[in-house]
Amino acid sequence: MGLCSCCCRCLELLCSVLLPPLGVCLRHGCCSMEFWISVLLTILGYLPGVLYAVYVICSVDPDRRRDPDDDYVYVG
Questions:
Q1: CA 17/CA 57 separation, integer angstroms
Q2: What is the DSSP string of 6-52?
Q3: Predicted model pTM
Q4: What is the pLDDT of residues 4-60, one digit of tens each?
Q5: Which region is the signal sequence (predicted)?
Q6: First vs last Cα of the chain: how many Å apart?
Q7: For residue 51, which of 20, 10, 8, 18 has the smallest C-alpha distance?
Q8: What is d(CA 54, CA 60) in angstroms, rounded to the nearest whole number?
Q9: Nearest-5° angle of CA 26, CA 29, CA 32?
Q10: DSSP 3
């Protein structure tokens, strides 16, 4: 983890405390499921939105996308 990566993570966490969906949007994008869950939780209450945003930024990998065809094994 380089210095730039650490600075970006700190910026995302700061944004997620001020406005939770913004921090999630910076990390995962505006059309992700994490972003919309953060928007919903922030509407329902500020604290749940902040807690979810910090959790998503710290522990969910944005590059976790898998190819659905990886589960199949071709036997010729």
A1: 11
A2: HHHHHHHHHHHHHSHHHHHHHHH-TTSHHHHHHHHHHHH-HHHHHHH
A3: 0.74
A4: 678 888 888 999 999 999 999 988 889 899 999 999 999 999 999 999 999 999 988
A5: 1-25
A6: 42
A7: 20
A8: 10
A9: 135
A10: H
